[in-house]
Design goal:
By secondary structure, the chain is mainly α. The protein is built from 12 helices and 3 strands; from the N terminus they run E-H-H-H-E-H-H-H-H-E-H-H-H-H-H.
Amino acid sequence: MNKSQTSTVTHFILLGFAGPWEVQITLFSLIFLVYLLTLIGNLAILCAVSWEHQLHTPMYMLLANFSFLEIWYVTCTAPNMLVIFLSKTKTMSFSGYFIQFYFFFSLGTTECFFLCVMAYDRYLAICRPLHYPSIMTGQFCGILVSLCWIIDFFVYSVPIFFISQLTFCGPNMIDHFLCDVDPLMALSCDPTPMVGHVFYSLSCLIITLTILYILGSYALVLRAVFQVPSSAGRRKAFSTCGSHLAVVSLFYGTIMVMYMSPTSGSSAVVHKIITLIYSSVTPALNPFIYSLHNKDMKYALRHVFCGTRIVHSS
């Protein structure tokens, strides 16, 4: 690229989804509804775990922290996404873009590690039930949660800082609705910046290691479940782990397609739809998935929404 024929980018124009004004209004309404459901569902889980003393266990404390994470994960992108649908200029400042870029990937990485910790919790509960109370104590659970929040926010800080120091050339239009790495690197004056390869390698490494750990944990869980003599015990174990596996499948299925599969032949619309699924739709579905087959959570959520405590037998 001839830099003399380009201008340095000081702001970005996020094109979002193409279409007339009616399409933008429809998309705005749908995303706003999904965002509202995400907030209500995850806040309800937070309140349920906080109010019900019987849910003050490591499994539900991890779920509450996961719901808290989902609220912020969606909030870092959804409000600006809604503005883009209604805005005529669709501009975003250089600093604002990189702030959202940093939080989007840091919170996404935190979600990967949270899912690992939740898989470890289920492994201990099913494969080592006698040792579970002594290992997964409240203090140890708090340490794991703290490590997820602290370490993950340092993982992308260095590569994203160096990406922000690159020179970006015009045009400054990004064919997306949020801050993602592919459309951003396409604007770099350097055709093959090394920091871009480091970013991709780091993302693939995190995704690969965490999904392998989760799959390995559940392979051991399944082996232990099939050794349970009673069918009732097997059903209880499957119901405990089924919701977590559903969330893992939804989240990892989309991000692996997005970041670990060849995407050169895919259209920008396909990229946007995949990103929309794991960034907005999945966090909205998670509260329903986790409460679908969980009687304790159903009772607690009924207490949250109806305001009446329901006594039930364990």
